[in-house]
Task: inverse folding
């Protein structure tokens, strides 16, 4: 079946936005804990999520023939564990006054890498499906990465605006969102597979 270029672009755009939603939600959480959002901070968050959302389909496509069954069997558990752990830490930190953990999501690699990896597991599976559909992977993965970068930067700003109004509960909400995303990833896999 042959699609025209417009249809392919629309499908890819919808796919990119869908894959970006977890990263967007976590970017909102990152913005909740920032006292002031700078372009640099937004860009750092966007680059983490955008890079992994672009890299994972590439990895998935190239590893499809070797590891497809393992990716689909265990990826959701890894994402669930990472998001649950980080969200739990944020929830716990929200109840401790004047703790260094009450600053929300840190931009340190030790905090951002697990989040970026956890939110991009779906993109890894998309890369596996791209391989079977013979989709040109580099332009598709690049588009997904740029879309995620832009939406993540927007999410940081949106979270910061919300966080400045409701600072006392911002970290609790952010932690709950991370845990819920982890459960969503797990539920989607267990329910739809």
Result:
């Amino acid at each position: 079946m042959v699609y025209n270029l417009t249809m392919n672009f629309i499908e890819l755009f919808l796919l990119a936005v869908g894959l970006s939603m977890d990263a967007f939600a976590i970017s909102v959480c990152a913005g909740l804990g920032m006292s002031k959002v700078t372009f640099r901070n937004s860009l750092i968050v966007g680059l983490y999520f955008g890079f992994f959302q672009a890299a994972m389909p590439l990895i998935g496509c190239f590893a499809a023939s070797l590891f497809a069954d393992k990716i689909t069997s265990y990826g959701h558990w890894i994402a669930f564990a990472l998001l649950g752990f980080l969200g739990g830490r944020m929830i716990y930190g929200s109840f401790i006054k004047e703790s260094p953990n009450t600053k929300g999501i840190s931009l340190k690699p030790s905090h951002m890498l697990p989040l970026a990896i956890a939110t991009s597991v779906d993109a890894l599976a998309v890369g596996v499906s791209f391989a079977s559909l013979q989709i040109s992977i580099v332009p598709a993965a690049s588009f997904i990465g740029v879309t995620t970068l832009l939406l993540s930067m927007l999410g940081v700003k949106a979270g910061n605006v919300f966080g400045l109004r409701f600072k006392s509960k911002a970290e609790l909400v952010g932690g709950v969102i991370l845990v819920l995303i982890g459960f969503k990833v797990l539920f989607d896999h267990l329910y739809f597979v």
Remarks:
- Residues 1-7, 98-102 have pLDDT under 50 and may be disordered.
- Residues 95 and 116 are 25 Å apart (CA to CA).
- The radius of gyration is 17 Å.
- The helical segments are 5-32, 39-94, 109-119, 121-133, 137-165, 167-192.
